[in-house]
What does this fold into?
Amino acid sequence: NVTVIEPPKEYTLKVDTTEFTPGTTATITASIYYGNELGQEIASNITKGKVTVKVNGKTLKDENGKVIYAKVVNGTATIENYEIPDSWKEGSTIQAVYSGSTECDKITSEKANITIIKEEPIFTTESVTAKAGDKITLKATITDNGKVINTGKVVFKINGKTVKDENGKVIYAKVVNNTVNVEYTIPDSFNIKDYNITAVFIAPEYDSLANTKTLTITE
It folds into this structure.
């Protein structure tokens, strides 16, 4: 008979939550597991002790600067509604520390890499109806999870041609409080028809964004 020696069973601690979106709130959990690598289960019998969580070596604190201690209930500790700061980047590390109790010795988890999930900003422009020769306002708006945006520039294109001022220079409109307004006089040469009007947003911290609506020229 061949004797199979299983690896010894032991308690381990793992951070269960590793994906975060800066600027949003998250529920962060860490669990105590029992068993070997072949069959780990949450140690649901453990209901004593507390867990602290570290990101990049710094222990998480509440808005008053106090260390957050999460109680272990049925093997799992939970920190609710933690606001994820912009300082958490891709490749930051997260680690949990269990204080220890009469039920289980102190455990420190391995460091896990954080994955940053970016919320896609929403960028829109508006359709316009006017006559050739009219002065119109080209508008665009960017929203990003409630942030106030005063960065980046917008250019407008009509049927692929970038809108320029009377001196032939491209109009780069700065974003102010998430919006852009550009006054533009429609050339007399425009025919009575629909044109594509495209706004393009360019900013250092964002990918280039574009949105297309319709410019309708009437009689």
Summary: The mean pLDDT is 91.
